[in-house]
Amino acid sequence: MQSARISSPAADWITDNLGDGYVVREKFLGGSGWSSTYIYTTEAGAEYFVKTSGGAKAEGMFKGEALGLKAMFDTNTVRIPDVHHVGLLPDARGAFIVMEYLRLEGGGSQAELGRQMALMHLAEPTDPNAKAGKFGFAVDNTIGATPQPNEWMDDWVEFYRERRLRHQLDLLGDARMKALAQPVLDNLGFWFTDIAGSIRPSILHGDLWSGNVSSSGGRPVIFDPATYYGHAEAEWGMSWCAGFSGAFWQGYFEVAPKAPLFDQRRDLYTLYHILNHANLFGGGYNSQAQTILQRLNEQLKRSQ
């Protein structure tokens, strides 16, 4: 008995464009605060991962995700789901994204993940602005639900000060936090003396924590990015909840050697994500951000 055809904006696009016949099965995987996820299966047995979201911002968020995934996919390094399409839901009710479905297995080799991330960071940029040494991305995107501005800039320290730290501080609107941060913003170059003038744009996942890392077919997989071109070390700002092992770091540094002040910059790159969590969730993240800023200020004082 032939299965009934399933019709929805995403299912119809798959049926009309991917050559695998009708979509005959829709499996709901779950939902987050802003999107719902599904597996769509066709007559031919092909499976596709679909996300849908309502609201006026959904198309822009999915386009940002799609461009980020493609930029990482094009490095041909760590496994990235291939994106097929971003489309609109009827009557401006939102948008959907269709991508390759990967059977995630969890776990996987930490050493290989480290090596593949290093190769991704070392890959030649595909965007002409990044090729020219600029930092940013083709579109603004989001980190969680927070807008992430990515307008191109020539200087990494300036980009990180304005597009990352000051942006989050402005969103937070906490006068005490801004005052505590001002010496760090004013003296940001202090943390880059070992690599001044040598920072090149690397494609970054941008939100790499344990929930966005897995494996499939024995290969490491990363997904759900907040992608931009930046300093490779900025990738590790979420490592406090990523669970990277010693084998991971050994694998990474085998391919991309550790810079002298790498460890001193970890607080600086963690700060962006803690500020973002303070904007998203409040609570103890505010005090964590203050603690990091106090440590950074102490480093400045000791250097004087």
Describe the structure.
The protein is an alpha+beta fold and 304 residues long. It has helices at residues 9-17, 58-73, 110-122, 128-131, 156-172, 175-186, 246-255, 262-281, 284-303; strands at 23-31, 36-42, 47-54, 83-88, 94-100, 141-143, 146-148, 202-204, 213-216, 219-222, 228-230. The strands form four sheets. The protein has a five-stranded antiparallel β-sheet with strand order 1-2-3-5-4, with helices on both faces. The chain folds into two domains: 9-100, Phosphorylase Kinase, domain 1 (2-Layer Sandwich); 110-303, Alpha-Beta Complex (Aminoglycoside 3'-phosphotransferase, Chain: A, domain 2), CATH 3.90.1200.10. It has nine helices and eleven strands.
